[in-house]
Amino acid sequence: MDDASEFYTIELVDGVAHGLRRVTRKGWTGEILAFPRLAYRDVRGRGELARPGVYVLVGPNDGSLSKPYQLYIGRSDALRTRMDTYQTAKAKDLWNYTFVLTSTRDHPLSTAITSCLEADLIKLALDFGRAVINVNQRPLALEGPDTRFLREYLKHALAILLLQGAPYFDEQLSVRPTSPSQSGSASPRRVYQLSGKAKLTIASGHESPHGFTVLEGSLARRKVTDSMPKASRRLREQLLEEKVLVIEDDERLRLTQAYTFTHPSPAASVMLGYSVNGVDRWKDEGGRSLAAVRKAETREAAEHP
Fold this sequence. Notes:
The chain is of the alpha+beta class. Helix content is 30%, strand content 23%.
């Protein structure tokens, strides 16, 4: 069995996928609850909310492509007491979903642990840049075993948060992702290049679990043609409004952060300024198109299962 495998137990407490979910792992003292705000009335009476922990309140940031979420991350020694206030506080009325990070009754999280966990989650969300989020607070100091415990807890918590659909903690969607050779995946990411006439478009990108990511600093042709799909045109206009794309010079635009498109084709169209089949135009360092690479990899997998 692969030593890198992680096994988590997801309990559908209400018997439905959209209700309260409780996630645990054998041998781990942590517990994570995930539930819509609509279910809070029923969830608040559970024992987990009487314990210390960290909460992540999630809401939409309407109209933003680059930061589509609003988050408020906090901690409390009594989660229910703190979260009750957010049910009625207009200043924190952003949320429609929440995650609660706590532990088993026999192994409560200390104030220092929850303080550092809160700070680490805020820093990650800020670094990845996919959400509007509250300002970080100074965590309490940790030493020795507490530091190791926090590292282990955070590793499992992040895996569970991603499993439960929390893309704002996903490095793959980061506005400044790690280099392809440091991505942590089983194999380095393959980087593809896109170029246009007169080198007005010079872009780099890679496939990701969420689509196709074009990297920060890539240059796009400023002029668009009538053939450019309406959806790609609207997307480009929004990226300009949010300054994800900015004017580089009279003929080019520049991407100020990595941006993940839903597919290689809109990624190519936005950068080139006209309609194009992205799987044919994005090419690796050997000149092979993304379509050719996929075909070769599929054939190799079939020949060497």
